Amino acid sequence: FSMKSVGETMGIGRNFQEALQKACQSLEIKRNGLGADGKELTKQDQILHSLEFPSWNRLFHIYDAFKLGIPFKTIQKLTMIDKWFLEQIEELVVLEKEISKYNIDTLPVELMSAAKSKGYADRQIAHLLKCLESEVFKKRHEMDIKRVYKLVDTCSAEFEAKTPYYYSTFQHENESVVSDKKKVIILGSGPNRIGQGIEFDYSCVHGVLAAKECGYETIMINCNPETVSTDFDTADKLYFEPVFWEHIYDIILHENPVGVIVQLGGQTALKLAEKLQRYGIKIIGTSYEALDLAEDRGSFSKLLQENDIPYPPFTVVEDADNALEKAKDIGFPMLVRPSYVLGGQGMKIVINEKELEEHVVDVLRDIPGNKVLLDHFLDGAIEAEADAICDGEDVHIIGIMQHIEPAGIHSGDSYAVLPPYNLGDLVMQLIETYTRKIALALKTKGLINIQFAIKNDTVYIIEANPRASRTVPFICKAYQEPYVNYATKVMLGEKKVKDFDFKPVKKGYAIKEPIFSFNKFPNVNKELGPEMKSTGESIYFIDDLMDDYFLKIYSERNLYLSR
Ligand SMILES: Nc1ncnc2c1ncn2[C@@H]1O[C@H](COP(=O)(O)OP(=O)(O)O)[C@@H](O)[C@H]1O
Ligand SMILES: [Mg+2]
């Protein structure tokens, strides 16, 4: 009976099913909603167990139970969920079975309409009809089944609600009147979770306010009820919708903004850049090519090479055989991870061939068809990171933080100190030089975060995140400067870096302290590693390094070094 979740989403619809589908589309667990994605459980005993002993994904298993034909009475008895809710899910399963009898050319308009009004995404319908998402999109437009936007009535119809707070549904009357002002869409970061928490909401909110100052009408898209970005008076207009391509695209078509800001909403927003590019929608700030270059290990390491910047040897492999073969070039210890993940998911340090083989097999079992990234692990290195604002010509480094734990503990889980407490002049200058070079080479317009591992006075690049990072809000607060506001104005092309009069309040040090929730998860491995586990953080100011608290946590770092 103790709470375990770390975040939440909200879906708003005209009916329960539509709202439920939207909430499921917002989860970012690589599902397209509830059902219709081919990812259901089909083993009866597993499903029954899950119904009786609820876990985070029981909702999905209730759906699977109906699909498998487990009797309503059994599902009700095991879950003790009110009949009404179960009937709603059962209805979805029935509808899907009906739709599956058709293909894209034969699907009757009534069924398409029913699916859309019950919240099914085009991708889900495409799965049922075995066709492309874009074909479903086209077909529903031909059938004149289009999204409209409704005002959330915050005054229960007692008097006219003036709050510009919208959700989509499939009806005829649209209530979201489009203005003729120049407008910009800011993509939010979705639900809070480990690895992508509230810090991205901070950046979104400050971005919205900065764009307003520049005279833009601001449009926020997000589905997280806990955040300030989803307050009805933060942006000029709020679409309380999943940060999910179909919803975003429809809003873009409706609003016709000058562009979309993807740099502020963490990986969630950044990941959507590819689709925006493909559909010819302007990305505000750093270009898609640069975002892609920074994310792609192969091309990014080429950029580093061209700029004489060191990085740990790495390679990409497709199977365990391949991994063992290439291991000789990389050298143990090695960091193994799936090639497209967030928050260090599935990352592991391996020290010999046996461990390497086991982990590669594990990774590929969980994400078949993925590639595996092998990095040489810099043992006992110091980790540091820098955040900067760049306009394509000038770079302003807003802060450099030195971690207390050695590299190998995820940056989100380390204690970190602003500014660095014992990096020499040479290392500091290398960090600054590399940050400038990388920001310029990527033609960054806006924010960039770069992570470093320092060993024997060599500064290696671990990664570059071409977006607002977890540490940006921390630096803003410690130095009392509105860096996200500045960066947004740079992204929009309204200001250059040299237009700002930077006046950070620098006294003493600010320590970032990670917060863990392990007491809620008694059976979870509490050992820290490259996969992030903390659920929050706090800031602690000290005047100087002789501070008892600092000395205490600093001495505890030896614990990690001795392992
Ligand atoms: N080559 C390396 N040597 C030592 N530690 C590393 C190396 N690469 C990554 N790490 C550690 O793993 C953590 C997560 O890796 P990172 O590439 O930053 O992934 P993420 O995208 O999850 O932030 C880093 O914060 C760092 O502590
Ligand atoms: Mg990182």
Automatic annotation (TrEMBL):
What's one GO BP annotation on this UniProt entry?
pyrimidine nucleotide biosynthetic process
PROSITE patterns per the UniProt record, alphabetical = ATP_GRASP (PS50975), CPSASE_1 (PS00866), CPSASE_2 (PS00867)
Any GO molecular function:
carbamoyl-phosphate synthase (glutamine-hydrolyzing) activity
Q: Which reaction does it catalyse?
A: hydrogencarbonate + L-glutamine + 2 ATP + H2O = carbamoyl phosphate + L-glutamate + 2 ADP + phosphate + 2 H(+); hydrogencarbonate + NH4(+) + 2 ATP = carbamoyl phosphate + 2 ADP + phosphate + 2 H(+)
Per the database record, which ranges form the ATP-grasp domain?
301-492
Keywords in alphabetical order:
Amino-acid biosynthesis, Arginine biosynthesis, ATP-binding, Ligase, Magnesium, Manganese, Metal-binding, Nucleotide-binding, Pyrimidine biosynthesis, Repeat
Pathway stated in the Swiss-Prot or TrEMBL entry: Amino-acid biosynthesis; L-arginine biosynthesis; carbamoyl phosphate from bicarbonate: step 1/1
Q: Name one GO cellular component term.
A: cytoplasm
Q: Name one Pfam family in it.
A: CPSase_L_D2
Q: Which SMART domains match?
A: CPSase_L_D3, GARS_A
Gene3D superfamilies annotated for this entry?
3.40.50.20, ATP-grasp fold, A domain, ATP-grasp fold, B domain, Carbamoyl-phosphate synthetase, large subunit oligomerisation domain
Can you tell which superkingdom this protein's organism belongs to? Bacteria
PANTHER family assigned: CARBAMOYL-PHOSPHATE SYNTHASE [AMMONIA], MITOCHONDRIAL, CARBAMOYLTRANSFERASE FAMILY MEMBER
Q: Which family does it belong to?
A: Belongs to the CarB family.
Q: Which named protein is this?
A: Carbamoyl-phosphate synthase large subunit
